[in-house]
Amino acid sequence: MSTGNPFSIGFRAARANLVPGLVIQAMMIGLVLTYYFFPPAHGAFQILADAKGRWGYAFSFTSSVIAAAILPALFDIAFLQRGRSARAVLADLAFLALFWGPEGMLIDAFYRFQGVMFGYHPGVATVLKKVFVDQFIYTPLFATPYTLVAYEFRKQGYRLSRIGHVFTAEFYRVHIVPALWAGWAVWIPVTGAIYSLPSLLQIPLFALALTFWVLMVAYITTRHQAAPAPAPMAEPIAD
User: Is the pLDDT of residue 229 over 60?
Assistant: First the structure.
């Protein structure tokens, strides 16, 4: 990423993400409306809620690995055909699994913390409080920096001696601020949809959004190299 105005960079990245972001937002809002206004779908939602309730953090870990590691790797192999070796694909798969599995558990813990703080009933006031804390406290102070530092660590060949710059104000300004702007354009409505559902459905819905986000980012960055690359999914991007 260039060292230009971080707000301008973030705006360009958000614009590059516009179409996939709108698709994900429409899908998430559609699922929320389906849950509340289409009773025949309750059986499918109940299956997801029961699985989350039974497996807890193991569900969060597994669903995040599938959403952000396994499916993108399969998508890469089946459709992008970038001429990468099997070893390179497996290396990416290992990194993404090791990153997003624990990240899914962290997001689960954060959702539970929000429930304790603000309540579990998805009323309007509760949802707004959770979205605010999620997107304007948790995301800029932890989720986005944590994600970009991890990706920079991979970029530098997993060498700690080469990532001292990630702990500087310049790294935050040049890399994290643009990612925040790009992420907010997509994830403020998405997290609103997530928090509008009962707590046992929030992680399954997050995993679904994460799946489509990672796949779309992979497609955009491969097919449109001349355009500003979408910012890495920082929680969430919780999220």
Answer: no
CB 104 within 8 A of CB 131: no
Place of tokens 């962290």: 106
In whole angstroms, give the CA distance from residue 230 to residue 35.
30
Q: Letter for the amino acid at 176? A: I
CB-based contact 24:207 (threshold 8 Å): no
Inter-residue contact 90 to 97 (CB < 8 Å): no
CA angle 152, 153, 155 (to 5 degrees): 60
Report in angstroms the alpha-carbon separations of 137 from 37, 129, 130, 205: 32, 11, 10, 21
Could you give the C-alpha distances from 185 to 13, 103, 122, 238, in angstroms and in order? 10, 21, 22, 14
What is the reported pTM?
Answer: 0.83
User: Which of left, alpha, beta for 159 (phi over 0: left; psi -120 to 50: alpha)?
Assistant: beta
Burial class (CB in 10 A: 0-12, 13-18, 19+), 50: exposed
Which residues are within 8 A (CB) of 149 and not within 5 positions of it... i.e. 6 or more apart?
Answer: 163, 166
Question: Is the pLDDT reported for residue 225 higher than 90?
Answer: no
Residue 238, SS3 per DSSP: coil
The CB-side HSE value for 89 (13 A sphere, CA atoms) comes to 16
Q: Read off φ and ψ for residue 122, nearest 5 degrees.
A: -80, 55
Per DSSP, the residues of 72-130 read: HHHHIIIII-----HHHHHHHHHHHHHHHHHHHHHHHHHHHHHHHHH-SS--HHHHHHH
Question: How many residues belong to the chain?
Answer: 239
